[in-house]
Task: inverse folding
């Protein structure tokens, strides 16, 4: 709960802090551009037009979600497919709930009409950079906005060459392009590995997904696997 | 495909964007009102790994030796160098090589 007594005066949102945030995000940009290109490749492979691919990446702006959703993209958008996709979207991004909680110290002295729009482009790197900025004594929330703005621009623009690459490749299996998402996901799992016991949630989630996929096909297997995995995770000690 | 149903596509993007924003703003909004217990925190921590595992496990099972080789190459590269771009490149190269060998 915010206490009125300990609340200092609202910080100014300066351009200097915006620029500081943008500069702090520079080391992230090459990896981000590669990820955005991978998304572009997959979007082209799944039959999206370039405009559709850019529209999705510019509005949803959640890389992992876009990859998972495209991997299960339906050939026709039915209501049930739409509900499944939104459910996957919610699940994949539930981790942002935790991230958002830790930004209270930086943001809670600013008015809601400034804070809530700023949260639209929030991602893990912005969060980590902002926590470090706050730990080092930074108090201007525009730092967060600066990290978000430069990443957003690079993310959207880098999608375009990726799309051209994916569209030009023909049979995706010939160049291994159908393995872009699986390879990327495996690469993301490696640094998260903390021994077999701590990774019980992966094994449970993966097994549940395979079983549901074998039985029903479709796209709900991601939801089923994710739910099974995070319930297993809840009962695993740290 | 998608072009044949632009309204459905836009509606789906709007729903997805709203869902993502709900999670981005939800935690910040919530923490002013309730506390997140250790069990819920562990659940939320386990989610990204579980989602990734649930997405790739059926691909691994279905894709046969070619998928195993591609993901193995990606995992090995990531383990050695910790560069996700190199890992994706290795995985894709392994998959292309396996395809050329007729796997």
Result:
């Amino acid at each position: 709960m915010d206490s009125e007594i300990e609340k200092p005066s609202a910080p100014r949102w300066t351009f200097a802090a915006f620029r500081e945030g943008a500069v702090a995000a520079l080391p992230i940009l090459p990896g981000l551009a590669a990820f955005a290109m991978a998304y572009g490749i997959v979007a082209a492979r799944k039959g999206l037009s370039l405009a559709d691919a850019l529209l999705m990446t510019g509005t949803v702006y959640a890389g992992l979600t876009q990859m998972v959703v495209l991997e299960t993209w339906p050939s026709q958008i039915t209501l049930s497919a739409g509900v499944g996709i939104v459910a996957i979207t919610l699940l994949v991004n539930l981790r942002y709930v935790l991230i958002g909680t830790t930004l209270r110290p930086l943001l809670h002295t600013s008015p809601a009409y400034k804070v809530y729009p700023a949260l639209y482009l929030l991602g893990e790197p912005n969060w980590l950079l902002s926590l470090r900025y706050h730990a080092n004594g930074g108090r201007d929330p525009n730092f967060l906005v600066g990290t978000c703005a430069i990443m957003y621009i690079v993310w959207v623009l880098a999608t375009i060459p990726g799309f051209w690459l994916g569209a030009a490749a023909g049979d995706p299996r010939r160049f291994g392009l159908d393995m872009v998402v699986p390879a990327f996901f495996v690469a993301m799992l490696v640094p998260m590995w903390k021994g077999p016991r701590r990774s019980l949630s992966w094994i449970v989630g993966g097994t549940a997904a395979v079983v549901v996929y074998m039985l029903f096909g479709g796209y709900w297997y991601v939801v089923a696997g994710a739910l099974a995995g995070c319930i297993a995770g809840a009962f695993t000690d740290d | 495909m998608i072009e044949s149903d632009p309204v459905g596509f836009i509606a789906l993007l709007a729903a997805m964007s709203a869902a993502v924003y709900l999670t981005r703003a939800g935690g910040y909004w919530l923490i002013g009102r309730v506390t997140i217990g250790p069990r819920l925190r562990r659940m939320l921590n386990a989610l990204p790994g579980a989602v990734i595992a649930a997405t790739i496990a059926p691909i691994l099972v279905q894709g046969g030796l070619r998928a195993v080789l591609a993901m193995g190459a990606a995992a090995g590269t990531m383990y050695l160098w910790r560069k996700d771009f190199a890992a994706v490149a290795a995985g894709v190269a392994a998959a292309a090589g396996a395809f050329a060998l007729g796997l």
